[in-house]
């Protein structure tokens, strides 16, 4: 499963999400929304206004969500 984290610099919740995924050895890619206006438009069109936005397969959410990350561990 490809996991993409849409984030911005100096985001505490983004950093917590990266750390939680890394501790579980779950690979992910980061898209910086301050450098990618098209990605920002897509995330806004999805209704999100808070980062990080995590897209993992058909699941997606915003904010630091340990419960969702734990569910990914079960699926990896």
Automatic annotation (TrEMBL):
Domain Glutaredoxin: 3-61
InterPro entries in UniProt: GlrX_NrdH (IPR011909), Glutaredoxin (IPR002109), Grx-like_ET (IPR051548), Thioredoxin-like_sf (IPR036249)
Keyword Transport belongs to the record: yes
Assigned keywords, A-Z: Disulfide bond, Electron transport, Redox-active center, Transport
GO molecular function: electron transfer activity
Biological processes per GO annotation: cell redox homeostasis
PROSITE patterns in the cross-refs: GLUTAREDOXIN_2 (PS51354)
Superkingdom of the organism of origin: Bacteria
Purpose: Electron transport system for the ribonucleotide reductase system NrdEF.
Family: Belongs to the glutaredoxin family.
Official protein name in the record: Glutaredoxin-like protein NrdH
């Amino acid at each position: 499963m490809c996991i993409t984290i849409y984030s911005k610099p100096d985001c505490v919740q983004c950093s917590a999400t990266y750390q939680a995924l890394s501790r579980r050895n779950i690979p992910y890619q980061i898209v910086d929304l301050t450098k990618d206006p098209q990605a920002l438009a897509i995330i806004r069109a999805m209704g999100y206004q808070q980062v990080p936005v995590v897209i993992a397969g058909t699941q997606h959410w915003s904010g630091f969500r340990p419960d969702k990350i734990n569910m990914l561990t079960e699926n990896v």
